[in-house]
Amino acid sequence: MTESRWVLKPVPPKPTPDEAAEALAAAESSLSRWTADSDERTRAAEVAAAELAEAEAVAGDAAYETPDNLDQLGDDLIRRRTQLEVSHRAVTAAHGRVDVARREVLTARALDARTRADRLRSVAAARQARTDQLIAEVNAFEQTSFTASPFTDSAAPMPLTKRMLHRAEWLDGQADDLARAAETANREQLAAAVARPPLPLEAVEEQAFGSAFDSTERPVPATS
Questions:
Q1: Is 132 contained in some domain?
Q2: How much is the pLDDT for 219?
Q3: Which is nearest to 164 in space by CA: 139, 140, 131, 198?
């Protein structure tokens, strides 16, 4: 008796926004080609139908002889209508592939937004730990008790760490909207959602992702 073994296949990685956009462009190109093919075959079928109708009218007129190619015209119309039906089915399938590709784009954008939010929170946590350490050192040095947020002047800019957390929260909200659209949007809504520009990389993200920390978590300038 042979022993059966389950082989787990690795889960393919999710496409990046750029990869998803490339796949969408390919699907849209295929749709354009099939749509053009369908339009051309529609015109050909209309011409064939008109030629057959004219031939049948002649055949029904006692003043004229029945055209020799009447059967051929009928067969040609049947052939063209069959080709047109195949083309219509191809267009429908191409539309479906475009819909799937658009959902993939939105899903990829949502995942990218969540990844950026997680990175911001990670950097903010490291910065906050360093801020707490510095405040503790000041308290010990001055024998006083500053709070963890000594910025009491309302005119002072928001601390960078807090701005990172606010941006992370905003990115999470955008990711939720994108993921919801990817799951529930109809064809027109998908097209509108994909047409919106990707979420920009704000200055606070550039500051966070461009920062480097040494072994003591002290901020050091990023190298170019």
A1: yes
A2: 40
A3: 131
Helix (H, G, I), strand (E, B) or coil at 220: strand
**Mean pLDDT of the chain, nearest integer:** 84
Task: Supply the range of the domain harboring residue 82.
Answer: 17-147+159-193
126-167 per-position pLDDT tens digit: 999 998 898 899 889 988 887 765 555 566 678 889 999 999
Cβ atoms of 61 and 8 within 8 Å: the answer is: no
For residue 70, the model assigns a pLDDT of 75
For the chain, the domain total comes to 1
Residue-wise pLDDT for 50-61, tens only, equals 888 887 776 655
Q: Is 200 within the bounds of a domain?
A: no
Provide the 3-class DSSP secondary structure of residue 106: helix
Q: Is residue 204 part of a domain?
A: no
Please give the angle made by the CA atoms of 180, 186 and 197, to the nearest 5 degrees: 65
CA-to-CA distance for 17 and 116, rounded, in angstroms?
A: 13
- For the four alpha carbons of 93, 97, 100 and 102, in that order, the dihedral sign comes to negative
Assigned token pair, 184: 């529930």
Q: Helix, strand or coil for residue 193? A: helix
150 token code pair? 């000594």
Report yes or no on 153 lying in a domain: no
Length of the chain: 224
Determine if residue 114 is left, alpha or beta; phi over 0 gives left, psi from -120 to 50 gives alpha, anything else beta: alpha
Report, as an integer, the average pLDDT of 107-117. 95
